[in-house]
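Much of our argument rests on the idea that a fold can be written as discrete symbols. Part of our work consisted of pairing the sequence of a single chain with a tokenised description of its backbone. No coordinates are needed to read the tokens, only the vocabulary itself. The record that follows shows the chain in one-letter code together with its fold in token form.
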Amino acid sequence: MTRVAVLKGGRSLERGVSLSSGARVEDALERLGHDVVAVDVGADLLERLRDGACEIAFIALHGPGGEDGTVQELLEVLEIPYTGSGVGACARCSDKVNAKHVLRDAGLPTPDWVAFSESALRELGAGNALGAIVQRLEFPLVVKPASHGSALGIKFARSAADVPAALVAAFSYDHKVLLERHVEGRELAISILGRPAGEPEALPIVEAIPRGQDFYDFAARYDIGATTFECPAQLAPALAARAQEIALAAYSVLGCYGFARVDMILAHDGEPQILELNPIPGLTETSLLPQAADAAGIEFDELVERILESARVRSLQAH
């Protein structure tokens, strides 16, 4: 039996999703016989971890603070092993712009984009370049904050008239935004699961098919019934293998560990395009990683134990 602190909640806009993920993980850990300490992350985090004499932390904390390397760095200071990717990988993945640069530099496919900050708008007149930007990327565009997950703040701009409102929405979530060329195709999610004694494996592909709309936003992701999920996705074997190969390469080049989820678009020309990589994917009832694991014959409790075991292995290797 291990004393496990489940870190969840926090104060980000993804608090609700995090609480749901954490609750499911807690139930699984208790069924597995572990001693669970539930921690709704706040200013007393370090005290609670010390007082609880926690041996390992299971991070179910989404959004800023949980996925950007912040809590991971604090846990390293306390010398508490934790699940998932390390500080550097989380920092790279949580900034969509930096992640896309890493992917592009590695020769991996990702839609063209342009990014700028609020200060660039105020101090450098970046707004005057919007005409050139949209001419380069062409409509429709996807406008999104540089950080945050769960499809928060993402807007679809079909014409120039849609861009100002989309920018306002994105800037309400982050000080930096990116305008990304919209690639028409199928929404795929490829979850990666580490193996203590081998290379990470790509789980069966999940396809998200939103009902009654053509864009996979926050509501489509988390409202039960808003989206049809097909797993395994109906793809030709060679195409599925190609998408999984690209997902594994993205996981590797961004330095991820333990588990992650790669979101991509399968373009109509058959080329998978990476949208982003989530280093702390959701574990809720509607989350895609548990669906993929189930399709691979991995029940939720086993999934949680495997993620926990990967953290133990990394801790042993580090010492």
Q: What stands out?
A: Residues 143 and 155 are 5 Å apart (CA to CA). The chain has three domains: 3-83, 91-109+183-318, 113-181. The two ends are 21 Å apart (CA to CA). The first helix runs from residue 15 to 31.
